Amino acid sequence: MRFTAEDAEDAKGNSPLPCRWLLHEPGEGAWNMGVDEALLEEAATNGVATLRCYGWREPTLSLGYFQSAAARAEHAASRGCALVRRASGGGAILHDAELTYSFATPVADRLGGGAARLSKEIHAALAAALADWGIAARPWNSPPIAGPEPFLCFQRRAPGDLAVDNVKVVGSAQRRQRQAVLQHGSVLLAASRCASELPGLLELTGRRIGPAELAERFRNALAALLNLQWIDPPDPDVLAGRAKQIADGKFANADWTFRR
Fold first, then answer.
1. Residues paired with residue 20 on neighbouring β-strands, in sequence order
2. What is the model's pTM?
3. What residue numbers bound the domain in which 48 lies?
4. Which residues are catalytic?
């Protein structure tokens, strides 16, 4: 995927967007979701955007907000994995050999005007980053697969999903508040032993890509596309304190996880 002339003109025609950059070590599921929600809160209350890349401490199954926890029985290989429920929709994701990103931005900003446009721009940046390894990741442009939706996100297809050789390699979901929007998603770098039916970039292309290296190239590509201006990151102690409050009160709580 290449940036279009329209994308380039949009970036040049807008003033730089102040944005914070975070590259986090792998964390456990409730913590990761707590940090993302804390960043969404800051986008809404303080009007600040943040791009974050991170990993997972152990193989973790994240349920989409509307999925039933009992449905995890449909995927035998991940039954023993840690479990967390996202605040965003979509299908379940087995987080393991991947890079996960999140981008939180105020809706008053040019990026918050349309969910489809925001997803397109982020996926374009990911495709541009992967092109540095000679990988052609293209948006899925066929109709969604007919029939009941599969349990796993990476077995679903929707227009705009990034695919390599017609195999989905990037899955994303959004959560919106009145003042802000959060998009987070995963790039499958390799197949997981807990979801071996889902090939990653290693199996599809033979390319072994490190998550930190991909995060840096993605960061640069998104900055060029969206005209981001990097500013100082948030106070780590303040962010960690709020993320822990959210994680303990919500994402690590059985009432949240098994609410459906």
1. 50
2. 0.91
3. 5-257
4. 153
